[in-house]
Write the structure tokens for this entry.
Amino acid sequence: MSSNITATSPHLEAALQAVLDRGETGVSVAAYYRGKLIAHGTAGYADVSERRPVDDKTLFPVFSVTKGITALAAHIQADRGLLNLQDPISKYWPEFAANGKENITVEDALSHRAGIPQMPDGVTPELMADWDWMVKQVAAFTPKSTPGTANAYHVLVWGWIVGEVVRRTDPKKRLFGQFVAEEICQPLGVKDLYLGVPDSELSRVATLSGGNEMFLEDTYNTSPIAVFPGSDVHNLKVVRQACDPGAGAIGNAPAIARVFAMVAEGGELDGVRLLSENYVRGMTRFRQNPHDQDKVLPIPVWFGAAGFWLGG
């Protein structure tokens, strides 16, 4: 066994070793069952060149797992009566109505049926990190397909659409990363999850390698090379410290697992309730026409109307 594997059971230790044997560089895993952390392990290296091992302090970019966290933020607002998923986004964000987007609903956006999967022309990592610039560009978009009629994975831009709706419906008008920290992470006691890593924690972030090759034909400019979600971009300090609500969360497995354990337990964990049980029951609906081929992803996908991937 590798000397830098730590695990809560011999079975998990063996599984982590098998993952390393298949070529994985570094791993953090965690599992909750009935509201309790039952398995946790780390293995491999957070930085191969420095031979820095993964440990409990290591933070990982989690890419589109971020979307689940951002969707939760929207559902918290909806459950509080501050947001209706059937309303047009323009009700909360008037500028969004421009160029034929006036009828796009919040649910259209959550379910990747808004018809605007593109990223802005000329986007760079620095501009992507500028929230105000991003949402201004999104508000000016013209749909690539008739809104509400086609499944098209909004690879990156999804986060700013949903995140800005959350910000606009927040009575305190907090930055989105602050909303997640104060309304999700802090109540649950989650300390190792960030939408924008502070300077004090940057040294904990794992160094990524590879993942820079496009695996799909990007007809809609969903992932332009300048901000493509691979190691070249996500190793940049400006990206690690940006609030990217579609693909930019950074954390460890116990932190991520704890957030979703709350959902699995009907909206409550360890006596802290973030969502009503009745509301959570409605979060597993499939989106409209779920079997229609996605226009961006070349594989079958099972997205729900609430913004979560439901398997498949």
In short: The chain has eleven helices and nine strands. The CA atoms of residues 40 and 63 lie 20 Å apart. Residues 1-56 form one domain. The mean pLDDT is 96.
